[in-house]
Specification:
CATH topology of the largest domain in chain B: Cytochrome Bc1 Complex, Chain D, domain 2
Shape of chain A: globular
Largest interface: A-B, 81 and 71 residues
Order of helices and strands of chain A: HHHHHHHHHHHHHHHHH
Radius of gyration of chain A: 23 Å
Helix content of chain A: over 70%
Number of domains of chain B: 3
Order of helices and strands of chain B: HEEEEEHHHEEH
Strand order of the largest sheet of chain B: 2-1-5
Radius of gyration of chain B: 24 Å
Strand content of chain B: 5-15%
Helix content of chain B: 25-40%
CATH superfamily of the largest domain in chain B: Cytochrome c-like domain
Structural class of chain A: mainly alpha
Distance between the termini of chain B: 60 Å
Number of helices of chain A: 17
Shape of chain B: globular
CATH class of the largest domain in chain A: Mainly Alpha
CATH architecture of the largest domain in chain B: Orthogonal Bundle
Oligomer: heterodimer
Strand content of chain A: under 5%
Number of strands of chain B: 7
C-alpha cells in the first residue's frame, strides 16, 4: 500500500534518488539520532508525568485550598509554577528537541555526528530544569510568568540550549539536498528565535530588571513568543512533515506554505502584549499588538487550508494511523485556538476574557490540544524508526488518544465557558453605578466549574499513564525477532486499502 | 525557497522588528518617567496640563511643583522584604495590581481604586506584578481597605474573614507558642475569633516574614493624584 505510493520527496523533487537509496540514507540518519532522540523522548515523557502530578496538586488545591496547605514548598503559587515550568521547559521543549532535530536531520539527509556534544547539552538542559523546579519549590521563584526558574539555573539552560540548537543549524548547513522544505524553515527559525527571546528576557527581567512596566511588556513579549515562535513553528513543522509523509501525498500548495510562514513570522511576535490590554502601558504598544493579533488570521487560515486540502479524501487511512490521528487533531485545534486568540485581542472581547479562566483555557488549548497532541503524533512515528521496534499495544494508543482528546476538549470548554461568564459577572455595573455581582458571588460561582476541570484533568492523566506504559514497554521489549513486522495501526486495514 | 540568505535575513528581521518596537522603544519611552507631584509647572512656575514646550522649543512635560511631595514613594525596608515574600508565595497568580479606567471593566465601581493605574505608579518597583488573573480581588489599593489585624487573620486562614474563600492558607508564616508564664501574652499575638481560637494557654504570633508581607500589603495604595491620573469623581 502506501510504501508504493510516492513519498513526499519524490513528489517534490523529480531529481531525488531512487527509493532504495533514500531509505538507506534515512535509516542511517535515524540510526545517528537514536541515542539523543531516545533520550529526549524519555526525558520529555518523564517531565510530562511530573507536570501532570503538579497539575493534579494544583487542581486539588483549587477545590480544597487547605490540602497540603501547611507545607510551604507545596503552596499553591509554587506548585502551579512548577507545573508550568515542567510542562513547558521539560515536556514541550524536550519533545520539540526530539522531533524537531530528527525531522531536520532527515530532511537534510545528514547524519548527526559528534552526538556526545548533543548529549551533553541534553543532560545539562534537563539538570537545569530539575534545578529550576527545585528552586521554585524551595522559594527562589522569580515572580514573572513563564520565567519562574531562578537566575542560578538560567545561564546553564541558555548554554545547554546553544549546544543542542546548534545541531539544527549544522544539519542545515551541511544538508545533502537542494530543496529546502517548509518544515526546515520553521524548525530553523524556531531554534534561532528562542535563544534571542530567552536572553533578552533573562537580562531585562532577572539580571538587570528594567524600569517599571517595561518589565511587563518584556514579560509578555517573551511569554507569548515561547508559544508563538518556539513551540508553534515546531508543531507546524512537524505537521507539515508528517501529514504528507504518512499519507503519501505531497503538501497541497507550496505557495501557501511560503505565505503562511512569513505572515506568521511577521505578525505573531507582536501579539503578546494583548495580555496587557487596559493596563498601565503605552497605548500604542497595545494597539500594535491588537492589530498583529488580528492579522494572525492570515497565516492561520493559510495553514488550515493547506493542511486540510492535503488530508481531504484520505480520512480513513488517517484514522488508522496513530500519528495522523493525533496530528490532525492538533492541526484542527491550531486553527480554532488561533482564531479564538485573535478574537481575544479585540478590546470588547478582551474585557470579558481578561483576568479569568478563559485565558487559562486558551493557554491549555494552544499548548495541549495543538502542540502536545502534534508532538504525541510525532513520537508515534519517530520512536519505532529510532528503535526498530513497533508500539506494543494498540489498545494503549487508543486509550491515550481518547482520554487526552476528550479530556482536553472538556477542559478547554469548562475553562472558557466559566471564564466568559465570570468576565460578564465581573463587569456588570447597575444603573446607579454599583456592581451587579459581589466578588463573593463570583468566587462561589466558580466552585462547580473547578470540579469539572479536575474531572477533565483526571481523564488526561489516564491518557498520560497509557502513553507512559506504552513507551516504557517499548523500550524494554526484546528487540527484533518476535516483533510484528507490521506497524501498529488503530483499526484493521480494510480489504481495498490493502490491495 | 532557494535564496537562503533571504531566509536568514527574514528570520532575523521579523523578530528584530518587535524586539525594537516592544522592548527597546518602550524602554526609551519610559526611561525618563520619574515620581512627580500631582500638578506640573512650567518654567515660570505656572501650573500646566499636558505637554508644553520649553524656550528652545523642545517638548517638555513640565517640572515638579516645588514644595509639593512627589509620588510614588520609596517603600520601607520591611515592605520591600514583604514584596519578596509576596513573590515567593506566588500571590501574583491569583491577584492583579492594576486598576483599569472607569467604563472599561468595573474596577472602580468595585472600590478597587479611585483612579486608573498608570505607568508612573510602578517606576520604583523592583518587580512589577501587574498580574493576569483575578481569582482574588485586585490589590493595587488593598492597603487602603484593611488594617494589619485583618491582614494577619486573613493570611493565617482566609476562611476566618471570608468563609467562602478559596485562597490558600499561609499558616506556615505564623507560630503557635505557649504563653509565657513570666512575661505574659506577647504584644504581637493575633486575636482569633470564635472557633478559630487556639487552646487555652497558647497564642499565635506572626513570623518576621508575615510582618513584612503585611507591611507590603499595607503599602499598596495609589491614593495620590499624578499629572496624568486624577481621581474619578
Amino acid at each position: 500500500m502506501s510504501s508504493q505510493s510516492p513519498t513526499l520527496l519524490d513528489s517534490l523533487s523529480p531529481t531525488a534518488e531512487r527509493q532504495e537509496a533514500l531509505r538507506a540514507r534515512l535509516s542511517e540518519v535515524d540510526r545517528s539520532m537514536r541515542t539523543p532522540g531516545t533520550f529526549f523522548v524519555v526525558a520529555a515523557v518523564l517531565w510530562l508525568m511530573v507536570g501532570t502530578l503538579f497539575a493534579l496538586l494544583t487542581a486539588i488545591k483549587f477545590t480544597n485550598p487547605s490540602f497540603l496547605g501547611h507545607t510551604e514548598i507545596f503552596t499553591f503559587g509554587r506548585v502551579r509554577s512548577a507545573h508550568l515550568n515542567s510542562v513547558i521547559y521539560g515536556w514541550a521543549t524536550n519533545a520539540g528537541f526530539a522531533v524537531g532535530l530528527w525531522i531536520m536531520a532527515r530532511l537534510c539527509r545528514t547524519r548527526v555526528r559528534h552526538t556526545r556534544i548533543l548529549m551533553a547539552g541534553a543532560v545539562f538542559w534537563n539538570l537545569g530544569v530539575i534545578g529550576g523546579i527545585i528552586g521554585i519549590l524551595k522559594g527562589d521563584m522569580v515572580a514573572v510568568e513563564w520565567l519562574e526558574m531562578p537566575g542560578y539555573v538560567t545561564p546553564l539552560l541558555a548554554i545547554s540550549f546553544a549546544l543542542i540548537g546548534v545541531w539544527a543549524i549544522i544539519a542545515f548547513r551541511w544538508r545533502q539536498t537542494d530543496h529546502v522544505y517548509v518544515s526546515q524553515w520553521y524548525i530553523l527559525a524556531a531554534f534561532f528565535w528562542l535563544p534571542w527571546l530567552y536572553t533578552t528576557a533573562q537580562i531585562l527581567l532577572v539580571f538587570e530588571p528594567a524600569k517599571g512596566v517595561v518589565q511587563s511588556l518584556t514579560n509578555w513579549w517573551f511569554a507569548h513568543n515561547v508559544l508563538g515562535l518556539w513551540l508553534t513553528p515546531l508543531g507546524l513543522g512537524t505537521a507539515y512533515y508528517l501529514i504528507p509523509k504518512v499519507l503519501g501525498r505531497p503538501i497541497y500548495s507550496y505557495y501557501l506554505s511560503v505565505y503562511g510562514f512569513w505572515t506568521l513570522a511577521l505578525f505573531y511576535n507582536w501579539a503578546g502584549v494583548h495580555h496587557l490590554i487596559g493596563g498601565p502601558v503605552p497605548a500604542w504598544v497595545i494597539s500594535a499588538g491588537t492589530v498583529a493579533s488580528v492579522m494572525m488570521v492570515i497565516p492561520v487560515v493559510v495553514v488550515a487550508v493547506n493542511h486540510h486540502m492535503t488530508v481531504v479524501g484520505l480520512h480513513r487511512q488517517g484514522w488508522r494511523s496513530p500519528t495522523i490521528r493525533f496530528i490532525v487533531f492538533g492541526a484542527i485545534n491550531y486553527t480554532i485556538v488561533s482564531l479564538i486568540g485573535s478574537a481575544m485581542a479585540l478590546r470588547d472581547v478582551n474585557l470579558s476574557t481578561h483576568f479569568t479562566d478563559f485565558t487559562v483555557g486558551h493557554a491549555h488549548h494552544g499548548l495541549y490540544a495543538f502542540y502536545t497532541m502534534i508532538m504525541f503524533g510525532g513520537m508515534y512515528y519517530m520512536l519505532p524508526r529510532l528503535l526498530n521496534r513497533e508500539w506494543p499495544s494498540a489498545f494503549l494508543i487508543k486509550t491515550h488518544f481518547w482520554m487526552t482528546a476528550l479530556g482536553i476538549l472538556l477542559m478547554v470548554n469548562v475553562l472558557q465557558i466559566c471564564g466568559w461568564i465570570v468576565g460578564e459577572m465581573m463587569n456588570q455595573v447597575t444603573q446607579d453605578g454599583t456592581v451587579a455581582y459581589t466578588f463573593q458571588q463570583i468566587v462561589e460561582f466558580r466552585v462547580p466549574w473547578h470540579w469539572l476541570r479536575s474531572v477533565s484533568g483526571f481523564m488526561i492523566t489516564i491518557g498520560h499513564f497509557a502513553f507512559f506504559i506504552n513507551v516504557v514497554w517499548m523500550l524494554f521489549r526484546p528487540s527484533k525477532a518476535d516483533q510484528p513486522s507490521q506497524p501498529t495501526l488503530l483499526t484493521r486495514p480494510t480489504a481495498e486499502a490493502n490491495a | 525557497m532557494r535564496s537562503l540568505p533571504l531566509l536568514f535575513l527574514g528570520i532575523f528581521f521579523t523578530l528584530a522588528f518587535s524586539w525594537t518596537g516592544i522592548v527597546l522603544v518602550s524602554n526609551v519611552q519610559l526611561r525618563d518617567l520619574d515620581p512627580a507631584t500631582s500638578t506640573l509647572v512650567n518654567d515660570v512656575q505656572e501650573p500646566i496640563s499636558g505637554v508644553t514646550y520649553d524656550k528652545n522649543g523642545a517638548e517638555m512635560m513640565g517640572n515638579n511643583m516645588s514644595g509639593d511631595v512627589v509620588h510614588p514613594q520609596v517603600k520601607s525596608g520591611s515592605a520591600l522584604r514583604g514584596q519578596e515574600v509576596y513573590e515567593q508565595m506566588g500571590c501574583l497568580y491569583c491577584h492583579s495590581q492594576q486598576v483599569r479606567r472607569a467604563g472599561y471593566g468595573s474596577d472602580i465601581a468595585r472600590g478597587w481604586g479611585q483612579r486608573q493605574s498608570v505607568a508612573r505608579d510602578y517606576v520604583l518597583e523592583d518587580r512589577v506584578m501587574l498580574g493576569t488573573m483575578r481569582t482574588g480581588p485586585d490589590l493595587a489599593n488593598v492597603g487602603l481597605r484593611y488594617d494589619a489585624n485583618w491582614q494577619f487573620q486573613h493570611l493565617y486562614n482566609p476562611k476566618i474573614t471570608s468563609p467562602y474563600s478559596i485562597m490558600p492558607p499561609y499558616g506556615f508564616l505564623f507560630e503557635k507558642q505557649k504563653i509565657s508564664d513570666v512575661t505574659g501574652p506577647s504584644d504581637d499575638a493575633i486575636t482569633l475569633p470564635g472557633d478559630w481560637a487556639l487552646d487555652e494557654g497558647y497564642e499565635l504570633v506572626p513570623t518576621q516574614r508575615a510582618r513584612d508581607l503585611v507591611a507590603y500589603l499595607l503599602s499598596l495604595r495609589q491614593d495620590y493624584e499624578l499629572p496624568e491620573a486624577k481621581f474619578e469623581q
